[in-house]
Amino acid sequence: MNETISALPTFRAIDVIRKKRDGIELTREEIEGLVNAYTRGDVPDYQVSAWLMAVVLRGMTRAETAALTDSMLRSGEVLDFSSLPTQKVDKHSTGGVGDKTSLVLAPLVATAGLAVPMISGRGLGHTGGTLDKLEAIPGFNVNLPVAEFRRVLDVCGCAMIGQTAEIAPADRKLYALRDVTGTVESPYLICASIMSKKLAEGIDALVLDVKTGSGAFMKNEKDAVFLAELMVETGERMGKKVVALITDMDQPLGKMIGNALEVIEVVEVLRGEGPEDLRELCLHLAGWMLHLGGVSKTVAEGTQLSSQLISSGKALEKFRHMIELQGGDARVVDDTTRLLQARQTCQIVSPKSGVISSMQCEHIGTACVILGGGRERKEDSVDPAVGIVLHKKVGERVEAREPLATVYYNSEARADRARRLIADSIQIADAAPVKRPLIHRVIQRSGEKR
Ligand code: URA
Questions:
Q1: What is the mean pLDDT of residues 362-391?
Q2: Active-site residue 80, yes or no?
Q3: How many angstroms separate the alpha carbon of residue 114 from the centre of ligand 1?
Q4: How far is 91 from 232, CA to CA, in rounded Å?
Q5: Domain segments of the chain: what residues?
Q6: Which of 56, 82, 120, 349 could form a disulfide with 186 if both were Cys (CB 3.0 to 4.6 A apart)?
Q7: Active-site pick, 90, 99, 132, 171
Q8: Environment class of residue 317 by beta-carbon count within 10 Å: exposed (0-12), middle (13-18) or buried (19+)?
Q9: Cα(64)–Cα(24) distance, rounded to whole angstroms?
Q10: Which helix (H) or strand (E) holds 443?
């Protein structure tokens, strides 16, 4: 009898779910218990889904958020790159539509002499994911073992992988579950997810790109600032230099949305071309990374240096080198037609003349998921070739019957749903809207805004 009692686990997932459902603060031990049991595979997805939804609805205290971040961080290895002679820096975004800046920034910043050990995620909800974009490059391996990750970083100055069974395994599982259970939109879960990965990377400094607008998880600026402060505070608690930029996601970034299409735009930017908003954001984020990493005295100087590194062709060469080292077909850098291409395309034309006044950016991201560019269930595979190319952005003039967007697809039924969603997402008015800034504000030390 005694033996049976001592064999019973002290932790019961159902108790933790009920407590959170009823708005009672969880202890560090309860949160750690749930994270560890889920990572080991001892708690099923359905119980953790229920708990995640309770967190979305009830929120978390600062102590709970810290306990969640710490347990997720400690679920795996914390890397130590102190033997590398240079500063280690990274950037992470809270998720957007058409946001391919990570693929530009890792090689660009490495070209300036810093090390960028980047651990990223897959598509989340309606937003695209860096790993899915990298995997659109034939052969690119985002699942390097730690020793290989270290080797690539050593040789090239940047390496890009996903959460593994060794690094941030708790985020790997929770991230995939949140993607398909409507439990992404919680600042506490986003903070723990992002910071557990980033703190496991052994970095010295981190630039956070916190999106706001109709395509972001934080639709309004107040919520974005709250999330930014939470993450900056968490990073500082762990002794890192952290800055958060609140940036605009009220329309897609750049013109291309979809995994392979976005790689094309990355190559364009690294060639010194590409859409203005994407180029500007990349250069600004790179400026901050170089500044925090001690390469430039000011952000402006870092931005200027980044622009020169692109013009010289060195950043593009670094991208090619990283692709080669991670097993990918580096010839895509010279010839993007080597990327997988969709079998069909169709155009969405403007119903009238006027000016693009707004875009329902989340719906454009969802349209890409519907085309097959993201997942609706955990086990879904992603179609790298599908996506959307916008021909007009907010503020631009359009004539009746002029193309607004081209849809790249492999299934008629999916294309039909996506087409309707995109057409309804683009609003046309007589007058131009008030222009939103690309960078809304910068949050540096907890609470300090510029
Ligand atoms: N990026 C992450 O890594 N996690 C989130 O929860 C959102 C964006």
A1: 96
A2: no
A3: 24
A4: 13
A5: 2-59, 89-335+439-449, 341-429
A6: 56
A7: 171
A8: middle
A9: 11
A10: strand 439-443
pLDDT digits (tens, 9 = 90+) for 401-413: 999 999 999 999 9
Q: Is the pLDDT of residue 9 over 70?
A: no
**CATH code, 89-335+439-449:** 3.40.1030.10
Question: Is domain 2-59 in CATH 2.40.50.100, yes or no?
Answer: no
Q: The domain 341-429 belongs to what CATH superfamily?
A: Pyrimidine nucleoside phosphorylase-like, C-terminal domain (3.90.1170.30)
Q: Does the predicted TM-score (pTM) go above 0.85?
A: yes
Ligand 1 pocket check for 384: Cβ under 6 Å: no
Window from 10-19, 47-56, 89-98, 129-138 with minimum mean pLDDT: 10-19
First to last CA, the chain: 64
Q: Which of 20, 122, 197, 255 is catalytic?
A: 197
Q: Tell me which residue has its CA closest to atom 1 in ligand 1.
A: 94
Lowest mean pLDDT among 161-175, 303-317, 394-408: 161-175
Average pLDDT over residues 78-85: 94
Determine phi and psi for 407, rounding to 5 degrees. Answer: -105, 130
Mutate to test the pocket of ligand 1, among 193, 212, 217 (most ligand atoms within 8 A of CB): 193
* Residue of 45, 43, 34 lying closest to 181 (CA atoms): 45
Of 178, 255, 320, 414, the catalytic one is: 178
Q: Which atom of ligand 1 is nearest to the CA of 184?
A: 6
């695209």: which residue's tokens? Answer: 128
